[in-house]
Amino acid sequence: MKTLFCLFLVLFSSSMAVAVETPQSATNCHCFKNRLFDPQRKFSADKYILTTSFNSFIAASFHISKRQIVMMLMNDSVGSDDLLIGLYLARARQVELESLLAILDNGGTWQQILESPSSHNKGIDEEVLKTIQSVINDKAATVDLITDELLKAFFGITDSAIDALRNAGGSGREITLVYLLEKYGNPERPAADIMTMHTREKKSWGEIAHLFGLSAKDTGKVLL
Fold it and tell me: Residues of the signal sequence (predicted)?
């Protein structure tokens, strides 16, 4: 425990700004076989669409290249959830992403990182971070919370708008895609209607994107 605490101090004290120049990793494989919408297999490209659009959103939100995100996700040392949590906390705490991931690699946890005295020296969004700390042991809830915060900041939407889409059955990635389609698709449709097309009308995301004039690949390019 003493060794881990010393590692906290060394890593945080030397991390004054977010730096993601060296790609890190996640366990997700991004070798998708189905990257085109096929009307005969209309759901086949949905996983690719949700992944590529979300990766573009994360890259745009943290002002890094999508290529860096993809490279991070093609290695094996950290999961995609930890990568998102790490990117958010690194920016909020003004520390290097690599420092946070190194703590995890050495047996630390996100709970310990948030409780470390050295992580409270500089930061933003303290109320949000307190909320994150309250759910940090539930990784899925933490990812949902961070995704919602990014959506609000990027698209200028409210908690109630996001809650309505989540209550309709939308995941964080699906809600991200919905707002991309609302903003960049043609014809114009409100986010709630787009979600209804998937949850009630049972249209695939590839089918919906096609109706909005976007190919599967386009959903990952509109923010580039």
Answer: 1-19
- Cα 187 from Cα 167, distance rounded (Å): 25
Measure the CA angle with vertex 30, ends 25 and 35; round to 5°: 155
What pLDDT sits at residue 73?
79
Rounded Cα–Cα distance for residues 98 and 101 (Å): 5
Q: Of 125, 98, 78, 110, which Cα lies nearest the Cα of 20?
A: 98
- CB-CB neighbours of 224 under 10 Å: 9
Measured between its terminal Cα atoms, the distance across the chain in Å is 44
User: Which pLDDT tens digit goes with each residue over 12-47?
Assistant: 444 433 333 333 333 344 568 888 999 999 999 999
Helices assigned H by DSSP within the chain: 2-13, 46-61, 66-74, 80-93, 97-105, 110-115, 126-135, 139-155, 159-167, 172-184, 191-199, 205-211
Residue 183 confidence (pLDDT): 94
